[in-house]
Amino acid sequence: xDSSELYHVKQQFVLGAYKTVVDLTLPDPNSPxxxxxxxxxxxxxxxxxxPKAALQLVPADSENVALKAVTSLAKFVAAEGTSNSESALxxxxxxxxxxxxxxxxxxxxxxxxxxxxxxTAFARAGELEEALExxxxxxxxxxxxxxxVQIYLSINRPDxxxxxxxxxxxxxxxxxxxxxxxxxxxxxxxKDEYHNPYTFYTEQLGNPSLSSPHxxxxxxxxxxxxxxxxxxxxxxxxxxxxxxxxxxLAAFAVASGLSSTKKGETDANExxxxxxxxxxxxxxxxxxxxxxxxxxxxxxxxxxxxLAASAA
Length: 312
Description:
Layout: H1 4-14, H2 18-22, H3 34-47, H4 51-57, H5 65-79, H6 85-98, H7 108-124, H8 128-135, H9 142-154, H10 158-169, H11 176-189, H12 195-205, H13 213-225, H14 229-242, H15 246-257, H16 262-278, H17 283-300
Helix pairs in contact: 1-3, 3-4, 3-5, 4-5, 5-6, 5-7, 6-7, 7-8, 7-9, 8-9, 9-10, 9-11, 10-11, 11-12, 12-13, 13-14, 13-15, 14-15, 15-16
GO molecular function: structural molecule activity
Pfam families: Coatomer_E
Membrane topology: Peripheral membrane protein
């Protein structure tokens, strides 16, 4: 069972309070909490799009398989979109094989972490089948289930995501991560008019020990889907004061554009310009650019006929 300190770190990480986690002081190196806490700190740096900080944090000479895996994930994210990312994926593939042996430095928890980090990298690289195989079809690790659910939702298979969630309920405790998984599925499926995710995110934001722009963004997105645009803008604006990321900017642009006011339209254009400039590889930016190109190509093939002259 986790100590109360490690339990708190895990909860903060699960809810996306990454800045809080990176600011935590590491326990004594001889403490059983040291490696798990170090991994959560490194993963938080990666989640904040600062893989270099993660690489500086993890000892380069460590033989622990989980620390090796978080190093490889940081290398992959740092090189994502370039040819150098493949070497990091190969390191994760090797580690995924290595943990199946007996001569491995690391606990069962460390081995489970390797699968989650490798599966995450494979999914980000578009290797979804490899990711699912690595995570394990019958896994009883809730973090692995969370990644599996995200993969199924990303390919528009909420039925499989729900099946995975229902399977995990048979063995998982009433864990915060389990509640988060249920909320994410509800957010995608729109069940009961998004009541479950809205209630979950609101409850978490009522926790005085939590400061998570991630949860604020999630509730903002939920409010967009509930047609509560001014409230959504309020959540997303507050999230941006805490931390700027692509998802919050994209959601804020959508909420502003749907607000039906002149100011909202202006704000939406400004936010979209900022998103396109700062995050040119964001899926929404890439998708709109492709559609814009297709529209221009179609327009170039179409000749507008001259107006018919009126009869004298």
